[in-house]
TrEMBL record:
The keyword Oxidoreductase does not apply. This is HxlR family transcriptional regulator. It comes from Lacrimispora xylanisolvens. GO terms for molecular function: DNA binding. Keywords: DNA-binding, Transcription, Transcription regulation. InterPro entries: HTH_HxlR (IPR002577), WH-like_DNA-bd_sf (IPR036388), WH_DNA-bd_sf (IPR036390).
């Protein structure tokens, strides 16, 4: 284990940042929050130019962190929808503050 992980693995800030690290996770959470429930292709279209591989990996990580729920319907063609979990919804106040901060400080 690295010195960094040894020193910070029990730090709440490190845990939070690990759960939502990456270029796309915050905006993915925001888009899912805005939509309530969103299908994969709609989410991908709204996040263009994100690559399918990147979106898929980020969604899997968010699901593994219990922040989003993935619902797959075995239809033809297959349908997959994403929504925030109860735990994911606890990030809404942070998301709203980040959005508000951006509005106030964007030039």
């Amino acid at each position: 284990m690295s010195d960094f992980k040894r020193n910070y693995s029990s730090c709440p800030m490190y845990y939070t940042m690990s759960a939502v690290e990456g270029k796309w996770k915050w905006i993915i959470l925001w888009k899912i929050y805005e939509a309530g429930i969103i299908r994969y292709n709609k989410l991908w279209g709204e996040l263009n130019p994100i690559a399918h591989k990147t979106l898929s990996a980020q969604l899997k990580e968010l699901e593994a962190s219990s922040l989003i729920h993935r619902e797959q319907y075995n239809e033809v063609p297959p349908r997959v929808e994403y929504s925030l979990t109860e735990e994911g919804r606890t990030l809404i106040p942070i998301l709203e503050l980040m959005y508000q901060w951006g509005q106030e400080h964007m030039k």
